[in-house]
């Protein structure tokens, strides 16, 4: 029994020693592998650090000779609103970068493009403009009394002007966008003071024989807004002063002074001159109507002629009670018809003396030849 126990113990000890040796060898190999991998990672890290430093140095050198600008990512039309997806940041050489180029994309988002812009075009501050905040008294108003340009389209910008018979011409509304257009009816977005100014201009156009007309802008997104200089009627100005909806009251004193100048200029034009101008335009209209239509008696004129004919027949019957046997003496239908004389058209060209007289009447003095 003792021999068996000794052999068992020897085997157990041998197994433990073998396992310990295997564990030591495995641990040694694992430690070597870990150290090898660590060295490899360290080398890779050093390589990346070197590359990163080189990239940073290259970027610094590029930034030293380049500028950051904002460019478009797609084509934009005049009047388009810039969105976030329409722009991006790019770096170009300082020599090729515009002096007023925008560098912050947030400064362009929401602004309106003035001109057509292609893809990858650097944006400058002069290419865009910001829409003003909508005032609380802004309204959409339609007008049918304004003479519109023939080629006017929706979205165009116009100045509404008023021209007086004495030659004075004023700007009533400045750079107004045509929001909608239907025939001779046009819609503008105008504030309270502009509504009152247009009301005064319409009254002036009726009383003074003035003309309200619109003129289109050639390049609205590049041209500045004109300054309205029409002096509103004094009563209208008083209404503007008493109206709490009107925001711009600083120009009222200047408008009153300009209105006095206009009234003085209109007062120098006598009533006879105004009658001559109106009668001249009425005569031209009548001649045009006579040329386009045939001359025919109106129903009222026909009734009057029939009444006169019946009265003449009754008086003739009282004077000559005896029957008339002469066929030639019997009145016929042709004799009863009124004789209509043709209307001679007015001369298309006035004589030099008449032209000089009209010129002297309008301008109160002869023109220097």
Automatic annotation (TrEMBL):
Comp. bias intervals (Polar residues): 277-296, 304-318, 348-357
CDD domains reported for this sequence: SAF_CpaB_FlgA_like
- Which residues lie within the region annotated Disordered? 265-369
Keyword Methyltransferase on entry:
no
For this UniProt record, give its keywords in alphabetical order, as a comma-separated list: Coiled coil, Membrane, Transmembrane, Transmembrane helix
The organism's place on the tree of life at top rank: Bacteria
Where do transmembrane segments lie in this chain? 12-33
Q: Which residues form the SAF domain?
A: 67-129
Parts forming coiled coils? 34-65
Listed Low complexity bias regions = 325-339
InterPro entries, per the entry: SAF
This protein's record includes keyword Transmembrane helix: yes
Name recorded for this polypeptide:
SAF domain-containing protein
Q: Which organism is it from?
A: Paenibacillus bovis
């Amino acid at each position: 029994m003792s021999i068996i126990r000794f052999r068992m113990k020897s085997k157990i000890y041998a197994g433990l020693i073998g396992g310990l040796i295997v564990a030591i060898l495995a641990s040694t190999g694992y430690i070597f592998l870990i150290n090898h991998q660590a060295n490899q990672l360290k080398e890779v890290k050093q390589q990346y650090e070197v590359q990163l430093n080189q990239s940073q140095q290259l970027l610094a050198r590029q930034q030293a000779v380049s500028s950051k600008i904002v460019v478009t990512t797609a084509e934009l039309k005049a009047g388009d609103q810039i969105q976030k997806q329409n722009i991006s940041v790019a770096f170009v050489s300082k020599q090729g970068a515009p002096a007023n180029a925008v560098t912050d994309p947030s400064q362009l988002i929401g602004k309106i493009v003035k001109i057509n812009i292609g893809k990858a075009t650097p944006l400058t501050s002069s290419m865009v403009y910001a829409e003003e905040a909508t005032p609380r008294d802004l309204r959409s108003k339609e007008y049918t009394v304004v003479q519109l340009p023939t080629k006017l389209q929706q979205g165009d910008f116009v100045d509404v002007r008023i021209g007086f018979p004495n030659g004075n011409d004023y700007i009533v509304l400045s750079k107004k966008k045509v929001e909608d257009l239907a025939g001779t009816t046009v819609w503008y977005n105008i504030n309270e003071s502009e509504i009152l100014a247009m009301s005064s201009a319409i009254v002036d156009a009726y009383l003074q024989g003035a003309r309200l007309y619109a003129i289109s802008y050639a390049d609205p997104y590049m041209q500045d807004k004109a300054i309205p200089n029409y002096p509103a009627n004094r009563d209208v100005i008083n209404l503007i002063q008493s109206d709490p909806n009107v925001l711009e009251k600083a120009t009222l004193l200047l408008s009153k002074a300009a209105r006095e100048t206009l009234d003085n200029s209109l007062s120098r034009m006598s009533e006879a001159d105004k009658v001559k101008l109106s009668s001249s335009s009425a005569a031209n209209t009548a001649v045009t109507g006579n040329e386009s239509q045939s001359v025919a008696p109106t129903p009222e004129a026909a009734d009057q002629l029939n009444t006169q004919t019946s009265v003449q027949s009754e008086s003739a019957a009282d004077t000559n009670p005896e029957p008339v046997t002469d066929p030639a003496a019997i009145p016929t239908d042709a004799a009863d018809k009124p004789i209509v004389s043709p209307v001679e058209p007015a001369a298309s060209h006035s004589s030099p003396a008449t032209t000089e007289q009209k010129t002297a009447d309008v301008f109160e003095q002869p023109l220097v030849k």
